[in-house]
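Replying to the earlier thread about multi-chain prediction with a worked example.

Input:
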Amino acid sequence: MGRINIYHLVWLFSVLIASFSQVLLKVAAGKKYPDRIREYLNPFVITAYGILFMSMLLTMFALWDGHNVNYSSSAIIQSMEYVFIPVLSMLILKEKIGMRKVIGMLFIFAGSLVFAI
Amino acid sequence: MSSDRALSGRGGRFIREVEPVWFLILHISLFVYSLSGVCAKMAGRAGNTGTQRILWFGLELLIIGAYAIVWQQILKHMTLTFASVNMPVAVIYRLLWSRLIFHETVTPKMLIGSIIILIGITIGVSDNGKN
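Result:
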């Protein structure tokens, strides 16, 4: 992975905001809308996809030539999504996470590392 | 065999948190979504043939758009945590496409990692959604 620099943190931040955008989509999915169009064209969904787009740009920026971010570090950074989403779901959406899910997530995280490192 | 029965064991449903039909829709959508990466790679490989590149890029956008529409419906029927436990299955599909379509090398580490991910998904989805 090499030395951690500011661009690794930028990439990690991009994964964090992408995870947050999933929370916004879930909030939008839980609301009632008068018609199908507004189910998709509402502030939550539009903001979520805006954030996803920003996340994509930040990832590209982090991986820019000369920023010394090796693509192999994606194993750890991208896998953080599997940690961020459940934690944000628990904190913001008040979802309950059972022990089996926690164990499953640990396996998924470990498997992602074995896969890519 | 109905999807209900396919996901049921003798001691009741293995996946108790979500209706089996939505579990299947989730996995079909993740499977189709994984093909967007194939389109991106095909677009990248298209070289200077502009029409082909646009076609692959267009197909990629179409898949992502369709996925976004279905994803919103999926989230109505399950917790975000449950959906997120299933998302990593895309890693395995990507591995499959890289081997079958692009004839790339699959290393033992990739296979072992995929098996560990699959075990994790299986354990995660068997959670009953309660503490």
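The helical segments of chain A are 6-29, 36-40, 43-62, 74-79, 81-91, 99-116.

Feel free to reuse this layout for your own posts.
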